Each structure stands twice: as structure tokens, then as C-alpha cells.
Amino acid sequence: MPRESTADVSDGRVSTLDDTNTSNVPTQEPEGTPQTEVKPRPWLEFLRTAKEQEIKERFAAEIDGIIRLHEMDRYCVLALFEPDDSIDSYDLDQIFIALSQQNADHSKDVLLLLLSRGGSIEPAYQISKLCKSFAKQHFVALVPRHAKSAATLIAIGADEIHMGPLGQLGPIDPQLDGLPALGVSQALKTIASVSQSFPGSAEMFAKYLRLVLTVEQIGYCDRISESAVQYAVRLLSTKPSLVGNKADAAAKELVHEYKDHGFVIDFEEATMHLGADWVKTGTPELAAAEAIYSRFDLVNFCLGYAQSKRLMVAGGMTLPSSIIIFKKRKE
Fold first, then answer.
1. Dist CA 154 CA 231 (whole Å)
2. Per-residue pLDDT tens for 155-189?
3. Residue 221 located in a structural domain
4. Which whole-number Å values give the CA distances from 323 to 41, 57, 87, 124, 228, in the listed order?
């Protein structure tokens, strides 16, 4: 269970007054008198009465403080922190808005923190290229925890991927209404094999498939998997260590080699597929990412407990407009 942080300090200050002074003449504090810093209320207590805009503004201010503390303000810092949601065109719009507001002149490199189970590969591909195009020189993807499927596609378009001890990428496994497209294709092959072995079951399976899938969806499953390979090749082919056929081989491995959508591709496995020259760990950027993730996790937990709501960040980490608060989903 996350614990409340006691290290947070607000910008508010309280002046010390002489309680024994009863005259009507205002008194002035002697120069150099120390002022008492007021610590903010613990998040759980604050959230019991706070309004959404107050929550967004405080969270954005605290993340800004973490970024400055770790000297990461030389970057344009973005995030897709979506533990319960999928990457889609809304995220693409949010990233574009944040880049346009915070790095329109391309004066900073781009740092993107990822926390996602995956989503649609088309906006993921565009997000990756967009971050690279807005960067002064380098686009860096940070993976403190899980960045699965479409989030992995975003990451491989970066110049560097920084993964923490608990960081994990995943197979690039496009989804169809929440189902893995490759899994649907494999299921169809299994059904065909069973029907061949037991001809009497063919009609039953055919009726079932008509209820759950359309012909268009079945065709989409095959096409989208090949599209995932093509997108991955285009992003990987820009890497010096993956010239020639290496990018194609790495892309096919990420799409087809793993049988489970949730398979853990940790730092060691990632370097095996992608090379050790641009997949890194133990960096100052990761230290900042861990601090940011811890704060997000704390606030998200407290928000769920105090208001039955959940937190998501899509866009600039220090922009209140990029912080979204939803009703918590029923278990």
C-alpha cells in the first residue's frame, strides 16, 4: 500500500507576529527573521474535500518540483500514464497539444514517460514519430513499470529507451475490441483444426463465430498484425545498430515470437532484441521517472480511496490540462 509522502513543501509561507503587541500601529518583522514553511496537507486528507481543478493544479506543481529537483527541466517532459486505459487518437491529440505548447521551437529534447497496457497501433506510431520530430536532437522513452504492446511501439521509435528494474516492454500485439488480434487469428486456426478432426462440430463453431466476429474483423486481425511489423520496421530502421535485415528481424520477433500479450520483456530481454547501445538502465532520467511514478501511484491510490476516482496523464506532465480524472471503474 502506498504511503503518504512527508517531504512535500508548498510555496505558502506564514509570517511570525508578536502576540504581545496590542497597539494599532502595524509592526514590521526584523530583517532576516526566518519564515516558517507550511507543509501541504497529506494527499489523502486533501482529497477528501478538494475539487478536480485543485487536484490537477497541485499534482502538476508537485511533478514540476520533482522534475526541477532531478534537473530534468532541460527536457520537454511528457507522459502517457494510463494504467487502466488504452492508447488511442485522444492521446495523440494530447501529445501534439503539449508539444505545441511546451516545445514549439524544438529547443529541448523530448522525454516521454510510459505506463500503459497498450492500445491502437496507428496513433502509437504517430506519437512516436511526433515526439522525435519535435525533439531538438533526442527523443527518450522512460519505462519505470509496464509499457506494453502499442506503448512498446512508441518506445522503439525513441533514440533511447531507459528501463527501470521493474520496467517491462511487451510483444507488439494489436488489440481488437480488447482482444489480441494475434490471439484471435490463432483461435481461428485452432477452431479450424478441431473442425477438421471432428466434422460434426463445424456447424456449431460457425454459428458461434457469426455471433462474436464479422468477416471484416477476421480480415482485420490478419492485416493489423502485418501492419504492426511494418510500423516496427520503420521505427527500428533508424537505429544504427539495426541496419540491413536486423530491423526486420527484430520487428518480427516483437510481433510474432511471443505467445502471450502480457509476456515480460525486461531490460535484459530488450537488449537482446534491440541492442545494448540504446536500451539503458540506472540513468538520472530513470531516477526522476521513479520519483514521478511514485507520486502518481500515491495520488491515484488516494484518489480512488477518497473519491472513488482514478487518475490519468496524457500530454505535458506539468500541464493541469493533461491531467484527467475519471470515475473509478467498478470491479
1. 10
2. 999 999 999 999 999 999 876 666 566 556 566 66
3. yes
4. 20, 9, 15, 19, 29
